[in-house]
User: Fold these one by one.
Assistant:
Number 1:
Amino acid sequence: MRGTRMNIERKKNKSAGKTLPLNSDEDLIKIREYCRSLAVQMEFSTDNCTMISTALYEICRNVIDHAGKGTVTIKVVGSKKPCLFITVKDQGPGIKDVQKALEEGFSSRGGLGIGLPGAKRFMDMFEIRTARDEGTTIRMCKYLDKD
Ligand SMILES: Nc1ncnc2c1ncn2[C@@H]1O[C@H](COP(=O)(O)OP(=O)(O)OP(=O)(O)O)[C@@H](O)[C@H]1O
Ligand SMILES: [Mg+2]
């Protein structure tokens, strides 16, 4: 009984990928390194490895800058057509106007306003879910076969 439960948990963990806390700049650097090494292991091109880790960095940067803290889940999905799938979650103030936030040059804090639109451009799938005072979840992925 115990063995069965443990096996199920192991399987669950495998498909769930790795979830890492994002509470500081240090965490951000560790997460970027982990993501880059996974992308290299998957044999993405050097350019794509850079695009993936830059997108991840910008989205994580936003969590630290605009929400304070969050979590990042990174996993490899699919075997025939694998992709690197990243979910970044926070429980901050939410993004007030998503359309505006995705415009290049929009920043609510006097930044350059290029993080969010840049990350979207670098990935194959990019989805934002956000609610005022509940937080923001960004899901994004990059397919290997587009290399
Ligand atoms: N996780 C988040 N929580 C709340 N607001 C966010 C979050 N991520 C982005 N935003 C909002 O979207 C805007 C645009 O984000 P974007 O990353 O493009 O620019 P920025 O962070 O202001 O500046 P930078 O160019 O330095 O990244 C932010 O100014 C902020 O208002
Ligand atoms: Mg930003």
Number 2:
Amino acid sequence: MTPGIPGFTPRFPGVTLERLQAWLPTIITAVLAVVAALVLLAVMSRLLHRLAPRVHWYVVGFPLMRIRMRLSWRHLCLNADLTGTDRPTTGQLGPLVVKGRPIMPVLPLLTRIRPRTFGATAVILLHPGQIPEPFVNAAEAMSHAWRVHAVRVDPRQRGRVRLTILTADPLTTNHRDDPADWATGPTPASAAGTPHSGREAAIEEAASTAPTVVTGAGTTAVPGDLAANVGHREDGRPWVIDLVTFPHWLITGATQSGKSTLINAAVARWATRPIALVGIDCKGGMELAPHAPRLSALATDRAEAADVLAQLVTETQQRMRLCRQHGARNIWQLPPALRPVPVIVVVDELAELYLVASRADKDEALRATTNLLRLAQLGAALGVHLVVAGQRVGSDLGPGVTALRAQLAGRICLRVNDEETVDMTLGDLYPDAVEAAQQIDPAAKGIAVTTASEAGWIRARSVYLPPETLDTVINATAHLAPRLSGLTPPNP
Ligand SMILES: Nc1ncnc2c1ncn2[C@@H]1O[C@H](COP(=O)(O)OP(=O)(O)OP(=O)(O)O)[C@@H](O)[C@H]1O
Ligand SMILES: [Mg+2]
């Protein structure tokens, strides 16, 4: 028997000092090998992250986040009050009925965690009796627990909530599109005769086309023409302003937040289609001046705006009679030969229409804003659409502004300075989007919270179109500007 150390009783009788001394080199080599392997893995992971971030996400990042999600799920549910129970929440204590939180909570099931290029998606299955609201409120807690940029909670499906997990803010990179994308491209929806299928892919494709060699005057518009691809959403999909899904849009944003840049991108798309564009720019026509050659009418002060809007109301009433004669409920049900051209009215700086300084101003403002409201109420089915932009939209502009807002179902909120404007833009339809809009970074221009048909709301960033690219598109499409009865195109 091998002698041990005097006074020392070994815990493992087989392990003696001599044996330990004999194993030491092997143990040291094994430890060094493990450390070296870990260092190598870390270096390779960093290298992969730098060279191929997407591959790194699928191979390393996502599996690690999935483990983190699984490990933290119980704590998260307990702390953020997301648990349910399969026991009664009331009981009898003597003559009293007591109510409380069960001490044996049941966790909702976190399932279908799938990697995506922008992060991941997952589904939470709710227990009977659970409502989605606490999950929407816990989005911030989830993003902290899983160490990701943001978690969006979509509660619209019954019995479940869908999670969109974003690992980084995809909107912080500047999207300056290749000018070629705006100068040439495949045939737009009208030329291809794409019917309105309602399928998003078709809309996205139609929305992205912007050839300078366009369909030529006289081509009949199809609903796909009303979709304009204006940028990128945070889920990696194109940001499409679609006037068929949402006929009228409200865009708010502080000065220099990117309203005109966004309007430029949309107008550059619509300019190539058989669509009439009308500008209302009461800042003296400065903002919409670059679009003038392609506009069918441009109002540069409130008196002109009132006249243009009154004429458009008359146009709408004529369209209404036409639809009635042919038993059509909207212009798209009319035979193509009879179908009037869609009209998009772009209003830059809404407040200029509402604010009054004198009695004379008051009558003029009332005429302009009443006609604007009538267009919003009547125009949707008759192919007259509004895109209304303003720095501040608040109740101080008058009661008419709330009535107008109710008609503008599409909302875009860029960075704004006051809480009331955020509330007016998003609060009535998407209360949970208000906070996201308040957090828009002033340094990153063109970022907005926008209505998204299938997701409720989403963050997005418009493309920046250099002035020369916009000029190219506008000049190449100027001959397409349709004549509208009673309206004169702006002087070149
Ligand atoms: N999506 C974007 N990407 C990069 N830069 C942008 C973007 N949007 C706006 N910008 C920058 O911000 C500047 C101001 O934008 P823009 O003129 O559109 O603001 P605005 O909201 O119309 O301001 P105002 O209310 O004063 O008219 C632009 O000149 C451009 O440099
Ligand atoms: Mg502007």
